[in-house]
Amino acid sequence: MITPTVGRKVWYRPNAYDKLGPGGMQAYGEQPCDATIVAVHSNALVNLAIFDHNGNLHKRTSVTLLQDDAKANEGASYAEWMPYQTTQAAKHAAE
Questions:
Q1: Structural domains in the chain (count)
Q2: CB of 35 closer than 8 Å to CB of 13
Q3: Residue 91 confidence (pLDDT) above 90
Q4: 2 Cβ contact partners less than 8 Å away, ≥ 6 residues apart
Q5: Per-residue pLDDT tens digits for 41-89
Q6: Could you tell me if residue 3 is inside a domain?
Q7: CA 73, CA 21: separation in Å to the nearest integer?
């Protein structure tokens, strides 16, 4: 498990609701959006500042941060650590 802290980068996976309307996120294909943790509620719940694929800033509160082997609920948006971060955390845990 990686402890989330303010300022850490994560990937945000938007759901269909995030993309609705004129102010919706522009997200192309399966690519994640860039996000920064701006507040931490727990190891699995964070607030995010998110940039969509056009560079527009969006904010989301109480976003699920998937940890370890956790799976997202069907159709839900979520945040996840980047592969490099999980690889580094695994290396440190093995030491």
A1: 1
A2: no
A3: no
A4: 67, 81, 85, 86, 89
A5: 999 999 999 999 999 999 999 999 998 888 888 888 999 999 888 888 8
A6: no
A7: 23
pLDDT tens digit sequence for 25-46 = 999 888 999 999 999 999 999 9
In a domain, 4, yes or no: no
Q: Are 26 and 56 in contact (CB under 8 A)?
A: yes
d(CA 80, CA 63): 10
Q: Is residue 19 part of a domain?
A: yes
Does residue 1 lie within any of the structural domains? no
Domain containing residue 90: 9-94
Q: Residue 20: which residues within 8 A CB-CB, separation 6 or more?
A: none
Instruction: Supply the pTM of this predicted model.
Output: 0.89
> What is the DSSP secondary-structure string of 27-83?
--TTPPEEEEEEEEEETTEEEEEEE-TTS-EEEEEEEEEE-TT--PPTT--EEE--H
Angstrom distance (rounded) from CA 94 to CA 57:
37
